[in-house]
Amino acid sequence: MGDEREDLTYALFGTAMRELAQTIADDGYEPDIILSIARGGLFVAGGLGYALDVKNLHVMNVEFYTGVGETLDMPVMLPPVPNAVDLSRKKVLVADDVADTGKTLKLVHDFCAAHVAEVRSAVVYEKSQSLVKCEYVWKRTDQWINFPWSVLPPVVHRPDQVRDA
């Protein structure tokens, strides 16, 4: 991985959310639920929820990244896992900050696919190696991304927690 990085500021994130939401609206997709992949997807789901006037937001906790370019072997769903009946026959928009390897998005997409009417994905960034090609992408890059919410270290250190990059 090179030293060059993609820098996303909070101001640019606001622009990205409006543009991504407009792309979704222009496509005619009207999700019933936005399912965010925590943690980075929480910000995306909130922004899209307001812009698309969707109040039904759900969260799925998935652990995969342990550091910059360091991952577990496979992504793991953490409790509480959403109840599939809550997603039943709904149009679901899965929201995340980045489709990097695509393994996390694939795990969530596969979880939803058997239960929902339709599932689509929206991300701020998509990388070329992603297993999942998202329907809605604000920008494509192969650089490491400095997100405004994770570029600084935590203000507290919790040694029992696996660290995100």
UniProtKB/TrEMBL annotation:
One of its GO terms (molecular function) is glycosyltransferase activity. Pfam families: Pribosyltran. InterPro entries: PRTase-like (IPR029057), PRTase_dom (IPR000836). It comes from the Bacteria. Keywords: Glycosyltransferase, Transferase. Residues 15-151 form the Phosphoribosyltransferase domain. Gene3D superfamilies: 3.40.50.2020. This is Phosphoribosyltransferase domain-containing protein. It comes from Murinocardiopsis flavida.
